[in-house]
Design brief:
mainly alpha; 6 helices
Length: 156
């Protein structure tokens, strides 16, 4: 695989995450409903970015910026799971409960979680950019070594 191929794969992974996040945003606005044919993966290994990261992208696993992608990616999905759960939960109030207040509180939680999701997305996209720079700064031998299965990585 060439440096250009690696960069194109990283950029495709970045585009996949941006596409996933766009679907999340429109789903949260109610444009996509359960009856829509749009599938928004909840699990981090099922989205296109996750399939790349835990699949073909693993050839880059020795690079620090690649390893740094896992936590923000996990957190993006964790935030989405929490938002999804809140949206699907039925409001159950007691006799003295004010459903309007409960609904407002839930909306505020969703807004906070969405802000967190956006923050983790920024970290993820920034780290992907740093990964591109890291790959661009590698020489041909270093690129070849990434794909040479006979090389045993040093223990850090």
């Amino acid at each position: 695989m060439t440096k250009r191929d690696i960069i194109m794969n990283v950029r495709s992974a970045k585009a996949a995450h941006v596409r996933w996040k766009s679907y999340v945003q429109i789903a949260l606005r109610g444009i996509i409903t359960d009856s829509s044919n749009v599938d928004i993966p909840i699990v981090q290994t099922e989205c296109d970015f996750g399939k790349w990261y835990y699949g073909d992208g693993m050839s880059l696993s020795m690079l620090p910026n690649f390893a740094a992608l896992e936590e923000p990616h996990e957190m993006v999905h964790e935030m989405y799971i929490q938002i999804y759960t809140l949206q699907k939960a039925k409001l159950r109030g007691g006799f003295f409960s004010n459903k309007r207040k409960m609904l407002k509180r839930r909306q505020q939680e969703i807004i906070t979680l969405m802000a967190n999701l956006n923050d983790y997305t920024k970290i993820l996209l920034g780290t992907l950019h740093q990964l591109e720079i890291e790959v661009l700064n590698m020489n041909d031998d270093e690129i070849k070594d990434l794909f040479d299965m006979n090389i045993i990585p040093p223990i850090v």
